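Reminder to self: tokens first, then the designed residues, so the page reads top to bottom the way the pipeline ran.
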């Protein structure tokens, strides 16, 4: 049994040596081999054979893109306000030898460089600019980190600011300002809606007022036309009455006695009135009395003495009788005919509006459209106006 102990020790030593001489590198990782403390070679993914005790894999670096979040850090802005900034950096190792030997700890170096760069960038901005310029801050921070970490064999791909937290007092003031701005916008929108409502209602009132004014104007025009026609009819009636009376008087051949008698009958009318206190007897009264006296003393066998000559009844011609009712009926017939013509014209206009192509079809078919009486009258008036 004791003779097998040395052989067993030798076997164990061989197993330990073989296990230490074989090294497996996983995918997306790079191993750096040092021989007697000096860099020797790079090990790619896969199995590798090393010299025991002499070769040693000192660094096993991950070549994938790494995401490193940094804890919130306080930064003072240009207007002397402390803000906490929470950032995250995406970087990747492109040169394993530099990443292992140029920096003692590249993650710590990147974190400290990020903190100092943020202090420099945020220190040149005020609070409002720092809160609204995240993209600008990211671009500046990325360019500075990429330039500084290039000699470390690291490529900074992206830099993001996850949060910028102002002090509680400033945050409360900002919330109040945002609330006030929202209230202001709501008040502006409400006022704008009320203004538009008032504008629309004023427009409706204006249109209704215009329609009322047009209706009042048309009604006034119609009333004026009716008054004009009534005055014309009264004037025509008075003119006809005066003409009839005038013709009747002249046809009756009145003498001086009749005129004197009519004058005497008009005297009481002249003297009638509440304001008449004194009545002056006109000078023509004596002449009228003389005429009446001469008529009373006149001899019927001597017509030329003591009075006026009597009128010859054979020369009297009674005026023609005027049939007022017939004239009224004729006027009503004319007005009825004019209204019917207006109705027919309106019907034709409505038909044209409903069927715009009707007039074109009639003209193409060679047909003839007879205008309404009102249209004929308008055409004749236009023609007469052109001739004049």
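Designed residues (388 positions):
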């Amino acid at each position: 049994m004791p003779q097998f102990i040395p052989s067993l020790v030798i076997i164990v030593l061989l197993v330990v040596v073989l296990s230490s001489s074989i090294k497996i590198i996983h995918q997306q990782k790079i191993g750096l081999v040092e021989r007697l403390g000096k860099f020797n070679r790079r090990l790619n993914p896969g199995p590798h054979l090393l010299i025991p005790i002499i070769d040693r894999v000192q660094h096993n670096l991950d070549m994938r893109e790494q995401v490193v979040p940094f804890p919130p850090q306080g930064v003072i802005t240009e207007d002397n306000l402390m803000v906490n900034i929470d950032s995250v950096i995406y970087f990747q190792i492109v040169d394993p030898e530099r990443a292992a030997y140029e920096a003692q700890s590249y993650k710590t170096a990147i974190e400290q460089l990020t903190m100092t760069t943020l202090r420099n960038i945020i220190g040149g901005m005020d609070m409002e600019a720092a809160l609204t310029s995240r993209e600008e801050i990211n671009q500046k921070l990325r360019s500075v980190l990429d330039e500084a970490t290039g000699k470390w064999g690291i490529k900074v791909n992206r830099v993001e600011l996850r949060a910028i937290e102002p002090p509680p007092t400033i945050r409360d003031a900002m919330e109040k300002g945002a609330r006030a701005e929202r209230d202001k916008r709501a008040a502006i929108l409400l006022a704008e809606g009320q203004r538009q409502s008032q504008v629309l209602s004023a427009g409706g009132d204006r249109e209704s007022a215009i329609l009322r004014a047009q209706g009042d104007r048309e009604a006034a025009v119609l009333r004026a036309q009716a008054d004009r026609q009534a005055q014309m009819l009264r004037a025509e009636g008075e003119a006809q009455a005066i003409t009839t009376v005038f013709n009747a008087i002249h046809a009756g051949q009145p003498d001086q006695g009749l005129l004197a008698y009519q004058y005497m009958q008009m005297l009481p009318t002249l003297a009638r009135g509440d304001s008449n206190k004194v009545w002056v007897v006109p000078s023509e009264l004596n002449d009228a009395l003389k005429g009446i006296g001469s008529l009373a003393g006149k001899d019927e066998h001597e017509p030329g003495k003591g009075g006026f000559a009597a009128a010859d009844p054979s020369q009297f011609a009674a005026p023609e009788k005027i049939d007022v009712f017939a004239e009224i009926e004729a006027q009503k017939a004319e007005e009825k005919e004019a209204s019917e013509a207006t109705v027919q014209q309106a019907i034709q206009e409505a038909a044209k509006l409903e069927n715009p192509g009707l007039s074109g079809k009639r003209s193409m078919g060679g047909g003839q459209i007879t205008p309404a009486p009102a249209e004929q009258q308008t055409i004749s008036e236009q023609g007469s106006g052109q001739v004049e």
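The beta strands are 22-25, 29-35, 38-43, 46-49, 55-62, 66-76, 82-93, 154-165.
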